[in-house]
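Re: [ENG-882] Designed sequences occasionally contain unexpected residues at chain ends

Forwarding the minimal case from QA. Structure tokens:
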């Protein structure tokens, strides 16, 4: 169980949990009630990140409810079944950037619901082909609504999208000598319902639109077959080789700007492979190297989305897209000893037919007008080749009992070599550095989170009002946290985040981060 309260957004969270187990079964069920108020940003520094002097970013508050339950039962000594259900609901979730930058009177996600049910069967031993056999089936439902009202006397646009996904998968593991073979397959099928209608502000009359945000009745199916061989050559060298066949297919009715409807279907297939190796150089030191191919088929949103996007952008369909393909290499070093844990990874990804948002026309025009507001028309396109390079470092060192120092750092640079511009949405250099003290039932943390300025922006980034002019400024926050354990079950924790009350923004976010924030939590463990 958990009780939590935070001052920056007046968060109130209550989570309850019940556990029960025996030699034949384990059962857990839990629920959470969450309430968030409007978020107060920091007051000091980087005032140019916002267009007004509001400390409280309103509206940003919403309520939420979560429920989950899981039962694991042993049918026999070698057979297990897992049954699980998850449900999440959020109510009246405002999109703050639409109020702040686009001047909307109302823009909320309502409703937002998600439900997932799944069952897993696992058998160990007693099978000729496999040492372990695993099968699963799942049902996933997502329901998302949007309510948009530009002015107080404007009509309200309501979008309602439902996606129901059925999935099934089978996998097996077989060990033969130095080989550990993993093989299997999976199938997922989405069915989409999408509606759009307008409510007159005066009469309350509802008028349906010919099509919603996505094509109503659309389907999207994915099939994957895979085989992996893990070869332990000796005590120092481990090699993995894998192959995957992927197939994605979609069917929907494509409606053009003039209302004409035509059936559309498309299938994308690919075979991709990967090879990796781990070399243990010493007791505490290992080296790993991987080469892999990747394949991303255009999804339904890429091909058929129709409606508002970020800022003053109106996105229109493009059914003529091709898959993105990627070739990735990475090299890593790991050190693991009783006092030191260190990892470093560098990688390079070469992407062809990269999908980006580009200028377009709709009904012969490059802009559309909705509720007296002009939107720029854009669509997804395959525009050239790109290279993404990056490095990640993590460091954890026990200086002397009871002190531990930790740090991590991530750097990523992307370049669209065809357009000679940065790849959009890439975060700046960011990381964390801190120290932890713990003894017995007490612990204390102090750490700094930071990010450098991100001024490498794509043309699409420049159309995003959530990114300040000239790029997102660099920032840092100082944070502390302490706690104590009572008895065997209760943990009381007090955190002070953003001690200096810095005004900052995560790159690409629609709002600024929390200002000085006191968080109290009490957790009961069973």
């Amino acid at each position: 169980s958990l009780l939590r309260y935070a001052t920056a957004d007046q968060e109130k969270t209550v989570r309850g949990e019940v556990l029960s187990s025996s030699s034949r079964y384990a059962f857990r069920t839990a629920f959470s009630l969450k309430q968030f108020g409007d978020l107060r940003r920091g007051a000091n520094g980087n005032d140019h990140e916002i267009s007004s002097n509001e400390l409280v970013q309103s509206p940003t508050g919403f309520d939420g409810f979560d429920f989950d339950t899981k039962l694991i039962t042993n049918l026999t000594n070698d057979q297990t079944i897992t049954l699980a259900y998850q449900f999440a609901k959020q109510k009246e979730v405002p999109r703050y950037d639409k109020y702040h930058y686009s001047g909307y009177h109302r823009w909320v996600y309502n409703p937002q619901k998600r439900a997932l049910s799944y069952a897993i069967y696992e058998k160990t031993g007693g099978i000729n082909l496999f040492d372990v056999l695993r099968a699963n089936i799942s049902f996933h439902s997502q329901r998302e609504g949007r309510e948009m009202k530009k002015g107080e006397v404007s009509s309200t646009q309501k979008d309602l999208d439902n996606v129901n996904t059925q999935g099934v998968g089978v996998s097996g593991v077989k060990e033969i000598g130095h080989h550990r073979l993993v093989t299997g397959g999976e199938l997922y099928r989405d069915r989409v319902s999408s509606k759009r209608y307008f409510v007159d502000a005066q009469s309350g009359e509802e008028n349906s639109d010919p099509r919603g945000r996505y094509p109503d009745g659309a389907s999207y199916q994915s099939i994957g077959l895979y085989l992996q061989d893990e070869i332990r050559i000796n005590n120092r060298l481990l090699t993995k080789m894998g192959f995957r066949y992927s197939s994605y297919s979609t069917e929907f009715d494509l409606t053009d700007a003039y209302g004409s409807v035509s059936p559309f279907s498309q299938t994308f297939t690919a075979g991709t492979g990967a090879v990796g190796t781990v070399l243990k150089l010493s007791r505490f030191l290992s080296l790993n190297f991987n080469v892999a191919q990747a394949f991303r088929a255009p999804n339904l949103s890429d091909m058929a989305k129709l409606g508002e996007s970020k800022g003053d952008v109106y996105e229109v369909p493009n059914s003529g897209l091709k898959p993105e393909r990627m070739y990735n290499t990475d090299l890593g070093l790991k050190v693991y000893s009783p006092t030191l844990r260190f990892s470093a990874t560098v990688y390079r990804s070469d992407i062809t037919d990269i999908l980006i948002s580009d200028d377009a026309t709709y009904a012969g025009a490059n802009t559309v007008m909705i509720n007296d507001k002009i939107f720029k028309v854009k669509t997804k396109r395959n525009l050239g080749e790109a290279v993404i390079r990056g490095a990640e470092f993590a460091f954890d060192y026990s200086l002397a009992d009871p002190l531990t120092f930790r740090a991590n750092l991530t750097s990523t640079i992307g370049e669209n070599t065809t357009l000679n511009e940065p790849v959009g949405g890439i975060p700046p250099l960011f990381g964390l550095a801190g120290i932890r003290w713990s003894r017995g039932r007490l612990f204390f943390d102090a750490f700094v989170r930071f990010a450098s300025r991100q001024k490498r922006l794509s043309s699409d980034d420049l159309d995003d009002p959530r990114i300040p002019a000239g790029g997102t400024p660099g920032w840092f926050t100082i944070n502390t946290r302490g706690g104590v354990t009572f008895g065997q079950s209760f943990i009381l924790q007090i955190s002070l985040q953003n001690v200096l009350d810095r005004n900052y923004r995560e790159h690409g976010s629609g709002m600024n981060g929390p200002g000085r924030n006191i968080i109290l939590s009490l957790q009961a463990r069973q």
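QA comment: On inspection the terminal residues look reasonable. The mean pLDDT is 94. Proposing we downgrade this to a documentation issue.
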